[in-house]
């Protein structure tokens, strides 16, 4: 949900994301800057689990401030994951979560009072901070080395601006999921589709039983429409591949390029087809009236069979049915949204956070290095006993994740064939990504043609 908060901040002008400066998806990522040390003997000297941090010396009595949008109770697993760092280095981490994070971070950076480390929820905000404030510090070599070892090139690129590497990836989420009922599938002999055509054939088979195969909700208050933008982004990434997707996000091709029109028409074969939607709620128009939180819940009552939504949707099942079992043999589970062709690998749409620093003090660089390591990824997984967190860090042991959905997400993110791309609307100028794109998707569901809806978004591009 932090991505929605960020989009709202964009929509109100709280954060200026400059799309023209968004070089995070390409170019030379560069190496890290100089690594600083404090000297002396590290408290972790001789301990195997501390080996990667001893080079920073004795950091006893030093403090590192961390500022994030993650507030109670979700903050505690993060705080707990820092214990090993504090034991190894002697430094203390002071955590501050704020619901006003996106707006206040820019204010603090501009006023000369930034935190040591900030968890940046989107590459666009990182670019804005680098270009507008000049306060972000280049990541040290030790962080760059960890990212080169444990993350794919796509992830390092998203933490870079104009060829300079600033921020290591932290947590991630996968949006390319379709939720379903394993029990319903077993009872009807349905199988998980491996291609888009298979999925459409399955949808038609389900419709033939009298059940509307898909249930959808794109309502989200001021942000109504964003779930439909995710549909388009996921399909365009599959149809056109990463190159076309990047060109579209960076406005190197028009928003209403024929490839985008074709992708939206493919989405319309589900969302605007009365035979396909809207299970449990009504006709096509009910998609707008249904909140995204409620969107998939009819699956629990057998009123629909499929719901495309991100990994973070897992929390909504538990709120609707406290004893719900989310597992491959449970009440609900998810499968990877299948590709539309064989040409573009295994596209994954998602989001994540990045750790950016505003100081190069040894204790800050040590903490950055820890956060970019496999060590922290596994400590964070073990500190999150209720699930709901995952990382694209390839050093993360999937067995340390307790949630089957988190485990599935990690396997998808760690797949060497996976082509990861950030949610496009989060990378576009606020007037588009948090404005006209949302509005035109609502109008499109209401009957507007793909050509007209996308052309109107194109005309709004600043």
UniProtKB/TrEMBL annotation:
- The answer to keyword Transport applying to this record is yes
Q: Please indicate which superkingdom the organism of origin belongs to.
A: Bacteria
Q: Which SUPFAM superfamilies match?
A: Periplasmic binding protein-like II
Its signal peptide is 1-19
Note the Gene3D superfamilies from the entry.
Periplasmic binding protein-like II (3.40.190.10)
Q: Which organism is it from?
A: Nocardioides massiliensis
Keyword list (alphabetical) reads: Signal, Transport
Family under the similarity heading: Belongs to the bacterial solute-binding protein 1 family.
Q: What is this protein called?
A: Alpha-glucoside transport system substrate-binding protein
InterPro entries hit by this protein: Bact_solute-bd_prot1 (IPR050490), SBP (IPR006059)
